[in-house]
Amino acid sequence: MQNQQGIQNPQTQVPKTPRMNDRDFATDLLSMEKYMTASYNNALNEASHQGLYQDLLSIFNETQNEQREIFNLMFRKGWYKLEEADQQKMQQSYQNHQEYSSQFPYGNQMH
Predict the structure, then answer these.
(1) pTM confidence score
(2) Are 8 and 82 in contact (CB under 8 A)?
(3) For residue 43, with 0-12 CB atoms within 10 Å meaning exposed, 13-18 middle and 19 or more buried, which class applies?
């Protein structure tokens, strides 16, 4: 088994106490923003009124941008680690999706 390397910045230290620290607050906010964007996405899919759809879309975009800013902050501070993608798995996934695209009703027009 290959040793997967993580992608992470040096970690900004925070106090390790029972009280919430900056990392805890950022993690809590990121979780909330992820939940909210998923919820707004569902609402957008089911909005039957154009005006409501536009309002929800605006709120969704704001929420998504906030989520991205929190993610960037956490990544910069080393509080969010990403796993390095395995090149062989990525190639296999790409090939699988290429095979699926041949099953589309209009042939292989989507890339």
Answers:
(1) 0.70
(2) yes
(3) middle
Tens-place pLDDT, residues 46-103? 999 999 999 999 999 999 999 999 999 999 999 988 888 888 988 988 888 887 777 7
Q: Is the dihedral of CA 93, 96, 101, 104 positive or negative?
A: negative
| CA distance linking residue 47 with residue 28, whole number of Å | 28
Other C-beta atoms closer than 10 Å to the C-beta of 46 total: 8
Query: What is the C-alpha separation between 1 and 34, in angstroms, rounded?
Result: 32
In the chain, domain spans = 20-79
76 within 8 A of 82, measured Cβ to Cβ: no
Amino acid at 31: S
For residue 28 the two structure tokens come to 């809590």
Question: 9, 76 in Cβ contact below 8 A?
Answer: yes
Half-sphere exposure of 61 (CA within 13 A, CB side): 5
